């Protein structure tokens, strides 16, 4: 039986927003919220936090375990090696990749990406080629075999740091991307890199009052609130929106 593990990469260091994944969102931390949402993803058997080595990361490992995740500690800069270590430790056949600075990650979207990878027996599936979901809902699902291949062959520093560029680029891998039903929401920024992002996310969580709304419901709510949209509008990643990489849409194969 296929074993699927959500692996969340996490480190304490951040030049633009230090300690961002341990920031408070009311009743939980950013990291605890990401883990809680990954535990709700259909098809996930385990959530593993892949933590960068170093004494500063001890608090992250403790928070991850408290929140229901297993922990693997590995290389700080070679995140690809850290992912391989976590995948091997957790005996993963399929990996769902999520980053720890996305506390609004949507379990339903992640479930869809996992399902598409399984349905078409793909090496790799994602939901951002092209971008259509708010920035902060990005996720990827790929086979352990594909990850092992990337680990053995990827040599560029960017491939090692960002885990999946080799899988997204090389023609030997089969790939698809789940498209958003309304791509206009791609301009919303729900990820944490800057102080303005934290102010935005904190206010969204306060507005939700502890509820986890489906992403489209939340996106429509945010769209109607110019006071929210304006908080981190200057930080929107325009290069991401201009991405020219397009993968096949699974809807076209129904």
From TrEMBL:
List cellular component terms (GO). cytosol
Kindly give the CDD domains that the UniProt entry links to this protein: GT2_SpsF
Where on the tree of life does the source sit, at the highest rank? Bacteria
Q: What is this protein called?
A: Spore coat polysaccharide biosynthesis protein SpsF
* Species whose genome carries this gene: Ciceribacter lividus
């Amino acid at each position: 039986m296929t074993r699927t593990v959500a692996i969340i990469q996490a480190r304490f260091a951040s030049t633009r927003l230090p300690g961002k994944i341990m920031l408070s969102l009311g009743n939980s931390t950013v990291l605890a919220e990401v883990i809680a949402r990954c535990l709700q993803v259909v098809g996930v058997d385990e959530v593993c936090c892949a933590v960068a080595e170093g004494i500063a990361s001890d608090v992250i490992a403790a928070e991850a375990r408290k929140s229901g995740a297993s922990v693997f500690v590995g290389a700080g800069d070679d995140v690809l090696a850290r992912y391989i270590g976590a995948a091997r430790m957790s005996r993963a056949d399929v990996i769902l990749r999520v980053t720890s600075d996305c506390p609004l990650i949507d379990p339903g979207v992640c479930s869809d990406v996992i399902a598409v990878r399984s349905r078409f027996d793909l090496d790799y599936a994602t939901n951002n080629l092209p971008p259509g979901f708010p920035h902060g809902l990005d996720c990827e699902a790929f086979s352990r075999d594909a990850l092992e291949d990337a680990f053995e062959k990827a040599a560029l520093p960017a491939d090692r740091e960002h885990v999946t560029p080799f899988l997204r680029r090389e023609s030997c891998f089969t790939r698809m991307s789940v498209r958003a039903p309304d791509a206009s929401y791609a301009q919303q920024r729900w990820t944490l890199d800057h102080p303005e992002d934290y102010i935005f996310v904190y206010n969204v969580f306060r507005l939700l009052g502890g509820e986890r709304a489906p992403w489209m419901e939340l996106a429509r709510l945010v769209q109607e609130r110019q006071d929210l949209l304006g908080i981190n509008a200057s930080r929107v990643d325009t290069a991401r929106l201009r991405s020219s990489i397009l993968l096949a849409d699974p809807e076209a194969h129904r």
